[in-house]
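subagent[fold] <- orchestrator: predict structure for attached chain, return tokens only, no commentary.
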Amino acid sequence: MRKLLVLIVAAMVGIAAFGQDVDAIVDAYSENLVFETSRGEAEMLVKNQYGERTIRMIIHTMGKADVLVEYTSRAEQGQKILRSENDIYLYYPDASEIVRLQGAALRQSLQGSDVSYEDLTGGKKLQDTYDIDYISMEGVEGFDTHRLMFVAKSRDVPYPRQELWIDAETYVLRKSKLYSLSGRLIKEVKTLETRLIAGKTVATKVSIVDVLKKDTETVLTYTSLEVDIELDRNLFSLEELTF
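subagent[fold] -> orchestrator:
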């Protein structure tokens, strides 16, 4: 009887601990994603049934909300994407105009890849957007991870359900599955390589697969990454986007 009581108490303590730990895990994961500023050179390898092509870019970030992508590969050179809060703007030098993406346009593919413009939106605290449940501890490619399920509180998010496997030691994302409201799997994301930068383990090579497409994969690789550097705040303004 005493042994049974001990097991019940241990189980109750374990459940309570899981409830307390979810916020801490998600906060650590979110914090691991963000630097005050960053500048990285990256390559996006787009694979599909028609072959492969590589798109090069420079990515600037400031905090959680601001992202500027500048294409440097020949075919796309001069094109830019600006995320400011939840707004996405595109600049095309040939047309000398800025386009704000809204509604269904956000679901368009970014340069034919498995990434959509919608994937660039964000910046809000995850706990404000999703109800989060702890599922289990699981091994992923030899790493111990926390498996969490995210269910959106409203419908104004790209993926109403997300399943994340977060490294239990470094809090880097090891893999995720993104679902529709009906529970249909839409995309799978896997971290292929990481690097320790300024005390944080950062995903520097990531695979994205849109499972609704045939024979497709996008691999985004940072070839260089500087963090906590001096950046002009105006870099993320509409006024500077055309320069």
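orchestrator: received. Logging for downstream: Residues 1-20 have pLDDT under 50 and may be disordered. The chain has one domain: 31-241.
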